[in-house]
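Form 7-S
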Amino acid sequence: MGTKWWYRLAGALLAGLGGWGAGTLIGDASNNPGFIPFGLGGLILGVAFGLILTPYLVLRPITRLSRAFADITFSALVSGTVGLVIGLTVAALLSIAFARLPGWPGVAVPVALSLLLGPLGLAIMVSRERELFQLLPERSRRGEVADRNNSNGRVLMDTSAIIDGRIADITKTGFVHGTMVIPRFILDELRHVADSSDALKRNRGRRGLEMLNRLRKEAEVPIQILDVDARDDSEVDAKLVKLAQSLKAQILTTDFNLNRVAEIQGVRVLNINELANALKPVVLPGEEMLVRIIQEGKEFGQGVAFLDDGTMVVVEGGKRHINSHLEVSVTRVLQTAAGRIIFAQPLEI
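Output:
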């Protein structure tokens, strides 16, 4: 039996007890119980209405409230609670002077003050959340900031990051912390790619499935498959960004476009390519290295070589040394969006 049915049964029980009490009062007042006692009739009606109306009167409001509060930070929740308590306290103190008024003003004025000052205090303190947060002890503030930076320890994986495969090696090193979350619609996209009629896409999809299997077996971090509703017709990237916003999670990807779109919408992105570029060894002008020229460059007489990490080395006058090793001296290093390009010249002229 699902959780919703337990809520329905609890609502039916409470409504049935209320119906029994109401039916008993009506029967006592009418002095004519009839063929069916009013208490039994009220019990039956209460149980029926409880089973039918509980999902609409209880479950849906609770679900909407939980979704609304899921997007509220802890500091904002504390600030709002403090403001509400202060507002209601001020309203109660002011109500003392009006409580002795004869007639309806003695009741209406205190109620109006509570309805006015309670929400007003809540709104004021939420708007001053940052100032209130500064009043907390230093340790609590560090914990709050760290919790925001960790994004609840969840990292959503994109299809490109799974197919890339380097995350499997990165997780084994112990540098990655938290839970790697793979939404169900990402798995569906990966399966569609693996079943593609195009040979290149099919191979990429199969590699992604292999990397995912390896990740689940060898990763040092928890792997979670998240069943989320993906019935809307939006693109996979849009779904991923929206899910990251709702979960306050980060996105792991190698997709340049997804990286930019997510950053614009305030979602933190972990780009494996940026990590790889950051870990490349630093090369300074004047350093010497041994490279193998494998092709000619775009400009006249240039030769092109590649380091072990894939960095391109453009050698002036290296065209005549194609398919041979050559000692070169670095002249300058150019950093581009695609990576680094090293320019060098041969040591022997």
